[in-house]
Amino acid sequence: ALNQLPIFRNSNTPASTGFGTTGNVAQTFLNLRSLGPQRSLILLDGRRVVPSGSGGSTDVSILPDQVVSRTDIVTGGASAAYGSDAVAGVINFVLDTSFTGLRATVQAGVAHRGNNPNQRINLAGGIKLGERGHLMVSGSYYNNDGIKRFKELDWFRSCGRIPNVTGATPSVVVACNVRSSAFTGGGLVPSGPLANTEFLPNGQTRQFQYGTIRTSLSMVGGDGQDHGENYTPVPAVKRYTGFAHFRYELSDNVAFFADFLGAEAKAHYDATAPWEGNTSQFLIQRDNAYLPADVRARMFTAGVTQFPMNRYDYDFGLLVVDSRNRTLRGTAGFDVTLGTWKANIYYNHGENKFHQTTENNPMIQRIYQSADAVVGPGGTIVCRSTLTAPGDGCVPVNLFGNGSPSQAALDYFTATSVVDQIVKQDVVEATISGSPFSLWAGEVAFATGAGYRRESSVHTVDAISPVIRRAPVVGQPGYYLGYPQSVNGQLGGFERGNQQPLAGSFTVKEVFAEIAVPLARELPFAHSLDFNGAVRYTDYSTSGGVTTWKAGLTYEPIPDIRLRATRSRDIRAAKINELFTGSNQGQGTQIDPNFPVGNPNR
Fold this sequence. Notes:
The chain is mainly β. It has helices at residues 78-82, 293-302, 364-371, 384-388, 407-413, 576-580, and strands at residues 40-44, 47-48, 68-74, 89-95, 101-109, 118-129, 133-144, 160-163, 172-175, 178-180, 197-199, 205-207, 218-220, 236-249, 254-270, 275-276, 282-285, 306-309, 311-312, 320-338, 341-362, 373-375, 381-383, 414-434, 438-439, 442-443, 445-461, 502-523, 526-540, 544-558, 561-569. The longest helix has 10 residues, at 293-302.
């Protein structure tokens, strides 16, 4: 419901997929003003909730929505009033903790084309315990089977954006039947004397036929394939949540409260298949034992000893991603009433555990080692590396044609990458609020308080992900050919993912004060006019102290019109993943609209 509001844009939803430890699979991260979820502060009854990853964002789908009475959204000067990190604003979920009775919801749905079935069961109950106690509990179950493949959708026509190679405007056009011009499932030679040779099963080859509006990666029509058709558009999601709130009035002025939140969210989806191409393409040697004889003859005729080959490795198996996110949070505190003043103190501890596996993930060092297959002693086919390092365990692989790799070879160079993450948060906060005096337009409201917070995170990963890719050394035992130099020295032993270990923590100390002053009431020119201001000093163990502030006016000329003006200074300190993550590498493509594709000055 919140994501339908104009102020929320580009929020992560349970339909989002991805690799990593941000916990962005099967979860909802609200994005105020499209400034990033890490710049929006999530509160539950005015108190923080443990982040659902080292990126600092909180999954709101685990909150007990069946007992939420309202949601307060503040976007102006929230850092000073509500706490640091609220650069974009704060979203405070206010619970109906005094709810008494029983409330149940059973829901099921399916897309009108018969896919994406989902079910939800919510149950909440509240009961008074004597004259002074109250207990409220709630639980929910949610399941979504998702949509497994794009190609299973009858409306799917492989439509997408493609650069306009004609040089005319617009520089990017939208077309359907967009296919790959660089990759095939059995291998494609992109350049050189053997260019456009496509490898088919059983050693057959053919000339690859290109379509129209051809770029280096895509085209419309032709012999290519849309390699995104096997991608999962909506992952399968299963989620359990439980919440309990207890309150007991120790006296007329003092009340004890405690609550507990527990949740588990699981997601499953298939990413695209592994691929090698562009700068990571296979370099096939002329003495490759599996090379079709006619292709080897063409290489002799052309006088070449190797050729590049791009390959979309469907026969390795799709990359299968499974994620699990578990959250536990407990809070205990006291509410105290002192005349017209109210005080609150609480302690909050939360933990989030994230686990993700990616199956069928090729190991970079081994896949190129296996690809360099030669005829060994006795006519057996072995890896070239085995000739100088007997017993290295390498299993040669036949890459020519979809379905050619043996299971033994796949078992040798594919594995499951794993990442585990635990995030912990401890918060202690005390506040006092009330009305110190009254002015001509009403009572002045004032609040002040102080808090302490500690956050920590530890990532553990598999043994392959932290490996630095190293090319074989000429003349050394285990040397082989065909290793692309472009990947040499890069971080990460797997083709995909490669999350890195991390360990770090920081502490935060804060003090704040806030005031609301009524300036006018029921006047001819002003139904109401109010001033509000706040100041907060925050001391980070990692970056030192900083002061945030806000000053604002709220003006209602008549009851039906409200105008606000606010000026503020808001801050966000670096999160754990930004502070303590080691080296990261990535690549992307940019198109300069001033130099369209086909422009010789591009």
